[in-house]
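Worked example 3 (structure in, sequence out).
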């Protein structure tokens, strides 16, 4: 697999020179300065691509070309937005960029409650506390129906079975401990620090983020699971002719976390959901970002079985892992631990890539033969927290993870008889 890294453009404190030195081959990025819902011009794409190539790497994956909320909830201007999306796809194809990671999560992209949750070794990871998120929903957001939703919520233990947790009782205990400062930090963690650099819906400095959040939630009133599915199919059906024309591979990112929150439907959470997607739009250009981290946060998911089942329709791989606690809360784990067996997953995807290169797979086009992989999030360690990195996107923590995963790939390649190549070194 191609070793890639999510990079946030020229303003990212992690430079391309740094990435080249640690063995990164491909860059995963987007035009972060283009406002949501506007066309990505070919010149803008060309300029960034050329800049990346001048540092000895290639622009491998777009993550992401955002799907605007109006497309997701089926607003009156969705056809206009889909037309803009198609124009951007054509411009990317003209510059030789053919893999698009996107998501169809309403309002929130990925969600966490603690961005610096302490590990026993002194590093920290992203963490999701179900009662803290429920407290945010009930007490801070004050969403209508929130309390009843959380009364019915069934948390799953590591065995994938309901554990009988009383979320509202835990929220009542938590409420006694919260302060205005803790409330502010929770809002920052859920709404601003994990969303501002990803979705474009929120940004640093928003004076009334909860008000904006409520306005976005209103757009989804009456939108249930089946309607959101229908809206996703409408979007994909509309762009597939352009994908066929330009050989563009759309790979949806699973919902994170992979269960319903905020009364919003989640439709890419498990094997059945993925199968629905691939069946509803049975085009080879409609595929999956296999994010082992997001999927492993759901105790219902068997990652190795899912990888075997969907490898042939996977265009991008995120190799990370989550640890699910007995109460259902989860934290991002070591890349050699957690619920996802990254060694087994690496073997599955390395074998799939070899099948593509041999012309024996569904995705054997020259634009799909190389399977990009990134380690996704990483620990915050050794002063990462002081350097202004985006939440989850540390340098030293991700470099450590990249070293672990490179070792896995080298060992798997030796077992499979594949020549392992480390760029930038003399043999």
């Amino acid at each position: 697999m191609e070793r890639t890294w999510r990079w946030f453009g020229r303003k990212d404190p992690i430079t391309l020179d740094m990435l080249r030195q640690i063995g990164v081959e491909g860059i995963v990025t987007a035009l972060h300065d283009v406002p949501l819902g506007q066309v990505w011009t070919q010149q803008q794409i060309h300029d960034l691509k050329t800049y990346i190539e001048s540092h000895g790497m290639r622009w491998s994956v777009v993550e992401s070309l955002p799907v605007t909320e109006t497309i997701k909830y089926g607003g009156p201007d969705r056809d206009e937005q889909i037309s803009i999306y198609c124009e951007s796809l054509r411009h990317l194809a003209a510059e030789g960029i053919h893999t698009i990671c996107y998501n169809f999560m309403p309002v929130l992209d990925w969600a966490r409650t603690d961005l610096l949750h302490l590990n026993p070794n002194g590093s920290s990871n992203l963490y999701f506390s179900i009662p803290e998120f429920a407290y945010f929903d009930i007490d801070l957001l004050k969403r209508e129906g929130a309390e009843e939703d959380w009364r019915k919520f069934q948390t799953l233990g590591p065995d994938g079975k309901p554990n009988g947790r009383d979320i509202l009782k835990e929220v009542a205990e938590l409420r006694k401990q919260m302060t205005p400062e803790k409330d502010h930090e929770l809002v920052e963690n859920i709404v601003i620090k994990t969303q501002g650099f990803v979705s474009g819906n929120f940004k640093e400095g928003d004076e009334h983020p909860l008000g904006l959040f409520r306005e976005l939630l209103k757009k989804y009133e009456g939108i249930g699971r089946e309607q959101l599915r229908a809206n996703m199919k409408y979007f994909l059906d509309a762009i597939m002719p352009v994908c066929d024309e330009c050989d563009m591979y759309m790979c949806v990112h699973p919902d994170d976390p992979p269960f319903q929150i905020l009364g919003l439907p989640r439709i890419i959470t498990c094997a059945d959901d993925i199968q629905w997607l691939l069946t509803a739009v049975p085009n080879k250009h409609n595929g999956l970002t296999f994010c082992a981290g997001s999927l492993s946060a759901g105790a219902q998911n068997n990652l190795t079985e899912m990888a075997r089942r969907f490898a042939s329709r996977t265009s991008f791989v995120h190799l990370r892992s989550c640890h699910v606690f007995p109460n259902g809360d989860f934290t991002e784990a070591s890349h050699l631990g957690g619920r996802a067996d990254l060694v087994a997953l690496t073997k599955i995807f390395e074998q799939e890539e070899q099948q593509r290169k041999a012309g024996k797979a569904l995705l054997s086009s020259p634009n799909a033969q190389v399977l990009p992989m990134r380690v996704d999030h990483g620990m915050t360690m050794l002063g990462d927290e002081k350097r202004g990195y985006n939440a989850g996107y540390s340098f030293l923590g991700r470099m450590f993870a990249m070293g672990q995963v490179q070792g896995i790939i080298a060992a798997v390649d030796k077992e499979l008889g594949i020549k392992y190549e480390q760029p930038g070194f003399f043999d």
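Notes: The mean pLDDT is 93. The first strand starts at residue 2 and ends at 6.
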